[in-house]
């Protein structure tokens, strides 16, 4: 059973209170085959060399501030995935160091999973982003692609736009700023053409920069997903679009 690979705009903890976004993620999950396990790389864990998270009991990392107390009480007791961790190590070249840690799932990983797989009964492994360079992440995704044939769902978790310093209206239904709309439209069109080289050059080519991504860690996971497609130039499906607090929540799947 070959699984697709996903890029998810993961949202902040209040994503779970947005009925539209919740419905979109639930529909997306329902349309997928059931994964044997999930491998996720989030914008919120950058670490080199490549790091693998907890494989026993998998805790949560409440890596955010300023939210209501209830968001710090969320639990997601997914099983660990030691066999998946071993498979990831086996797919890496001899010169690449792969380290192990007991780090849990950060909100870029667990927030969408609480909506997509609320029973927390699928083993989950989080891995770090060892680089933010698109070409290197495309290569890493290509190396991980064989996992899809083992029923593993690969997720790159970021945000299609993430210009938090430039937001002025923090309501979920806020009108998207021009830089967010322009960047999102550019990304949607480039994805539809399979224009991976253009996407990789987003810092120089995309309208709305640098406001859409004053730092690039939320766009970078896209390239892990595209690499895992085995044919990055094949246009992905884009089942989720629109905006949340003015940020583009566009998500896509390949394969």
Automatic annotation (TrEMBL):
What this protein needs as a cofactor is:
Zn(2+)
Which Gene3D superfamilies has this protein been placed in?
A: LigB-like
Q: What keywords is this UniProt entry annotated with?
A: Dioxygenase, Metal-binding, Oxidoreductase, Zinc
> In terms of domain of life, where is this protein from?
Bacteria
Stretches assigned to coiled coil? none
Positions of the Extradiol ring-cleavage dioxygenase class III enzyme subunit B domain: 28-231
Xref: InterPro entries: Extradiol_dOase_DODA, Xdiol_dOase_suB
By its UniProt entry, which Pfam families does this protein fall under?
Answer: LigB
Q: Which GO terms describe its molecular function?
A: ferrous iron binding; oxidoreductase activity, acting on single donors with incorporation of molecular oxygen, incorporation of two atoms of oxygen; zinc ion binding
Family affiliation: Belongs to the DODA-type extradiol aromatic ring-opening dioxygenase family.
Under PANTHER family, the record lists: 4,5-DOPA DIOXYGENASE EXTRADIOL-LIKE PROTEIN (PTHR30096:SF0)
Q: What is this protein called?
A: 4,5-DOPA dioxygenase extradiol
